[in-house]
Amino acid sequence: MRAIDITNKKNNNEKLTYEEIEYMVNSYVKDKINDETMSDFVWSIYYNGLSLDETYYLTDVMIKSGETIDLSKINKPVCDKHSTGGVGDKITLIVSPIAASAGVCVPKMSGRGLGLTGGTADKLESIPGYKLKMSKDAFINELQTVGCAVISQSEKIAVADKKIYALRNEIGAVDSIPLIASSIMSKKIASGSDVIIIDLKVGKGAFMKNIKDATKLAKTMVKIGNYYGKKVICTLSDMNAPLGRNIGNALEVKEAIDFFKGKYDKRLYDLSVYISALMISSSKKISFKSAKELVINLLESGHARNKFNTWIKFQGGNLGKLRDKAKTVKVTADINGYVNKIDSLKLSKIVFDLGAGRKKKKDKIDYAVGVVLNKTLGDKVQKGDVLATIYYNKKVDNMEDDLRNCYLIERKKKKIKKIVIKTIK
Ligand code: URA
After folding, report:
1. Domain co-membership, 18 together with 125
2. Residue 249's domain is classified under what CATH number?
């Protein structure tokens, strides 16, 4: 077999066999073909697409390139939850303990942020003492005793995906449905859960910009899951505005702490309750309505909050000492009206420039910096009101004006769209 023939075949829009895809992926992992040759292959897929069978072959080859986790020892329903990454997305911190307190086991391997979207691993690292690395046995022990565990993504899972995803990032070939579907599903299937809930973000702050493409990606991932006998459910959620009020690592942990104390931002609450109810209903095979009632009860009774505290403590974290030292500056409104839009993409760039994200894998980040939205979608604003607070350690040029410009304030209040767009099973 020759790489050039396989790439040409795809360039001619012909279907590839399992062996051809396996040859390309394994040769790249073993450094038998270089970045340039693999880039040509990736671009041939980017422009010509893959059939469902070919997407499954790619997923399967990437799963087999690394370790898989065996969670069969756990005698509870096991449910993983994945988010495709959004601005202010701290949902994992909230739904994992909620589902665990309902008796669902939640094993999470979370990545660090690269580019504009923050990673859950970075958020958890803003808690002093929190251990993101542990042995497989310790991970399973925590799942059995606490019910949820969040550790960093293992380097040994879906090894080929890591290398190919890094290359796609470098050459700008990320937004391809078969490439995204196989990349996400290879990691999820290898991680061993029976039920996989995917929170697929749609909108300006996400890589799926419209509902049509997001639906296509969701259907592909559900079908790939079916090849493995896994239940995959994808919820499309709106990312045209940030999720919750706090954006930045320690600030997002603070918002999760406040959430469990009953201080809710509406969109964050709606999505958190929805996703946790989906996790519980599909894992415990109860109706969505009963699962939702259970979630509300677990929040109001304080059970979910206790589970959150137990989980963080179990992994060594001290919530009383967050890495949150920063100066603050308030940004005020210069007109009266209603907040009809908050540009999540622009906002994420500001937070990134403050130092909350990294350009390269090895860059250091500042856990404390970010933005708190004092006014959010639908709020009434008077000239001079505080719109948002910037937490910074190093000033960024024009940061106050740039943040003010993220807000669209208009005389007439617009209807706020529901955060959950639709769910595909
Ligand atoms: N997340 C992934 O894990 N892979 C992609 O290709 C895109 C987002």
Report:
1. no
2. 3.40.1030.10
178 in Cβ contact with 164 (< 8 Å) = no
Determine if the pTM surpasses 0.85.
yes
* Whether 221 and 359 share a structural domain: no
Say if residues 308 and 260 touch (Cβ distance below 8 Å).
yes
* 116 within a domain of the structure (yes/no): yes
Q: Which residue in the list 10, 82, 108, 307 is annotated as catalytic?
A: 82
Distance (angstroms) between ligand 1 centre and the Cα of 184 equals 5
**CA of 423 relative to ligand 1 center, distance in Å:** 19
Q: Among this protein's residues, is 188 annotated catalytic?
A: no
Q: Is 161 a catalytic residue?
A: yes
294 lines ligand 1 (CB under 6 A): no
Give the model's pLDDT for residue 377: 96
Which pLDDT score is estimated for 138? 95
The domain tally of the chain equals 3
51 is catalytic: no
Parent domain of 27: 3-49
- Asked whether 100 and 307 are in contact (CB, 8 A), the reply is yes
Averaged pLDDT, groups of 10, the chain, 425 residues long? 97 98 98 97 98 98 96 93 91 97 95 74 96 93 96 92 91 93 96 95 86 97 97 95 95 98 97 98 97 98 98 98 97 98 94 89 90 97 98 96 98 95 97
pLDDT, residue 66, reads 97
Terminal alpha carbon distance of the chain: 38
For residue 349, give the H/E element and its range. helix 344-351
Do the Cβ atoms of 20 and 6 come closer than 8 Å? yes
Q: What is the pLDDT of residue 114?
A: 64
Give the nearest ligand 1 atom to 179 CA. 6
Select from 221, 232, 235, 233 the least CA-distant residue to 179.
221
CA-closest residue to ligand 1 atom 6? 180
Atom of ligand 1 nearest to the CA of 174: 6
Going by C-beta distance under 8 Å and a sequence separation of 6 or more, which residues neighbour residue 221? 181, 184, 185, 198, 232, 234
Quickly count: other Cβ atoms within 10 Å of residue 327's Cβ. Answer: 12
Which of 84, 189, 221 to mutate to test ligand 1, by most ligand atoms within 8 A of the CB atom? 84
Give me the torsion for CA of 281, 418, 273, 290, rounded to 10°. -40
Atom of ligand 1 nearest to the CA of 165: 6
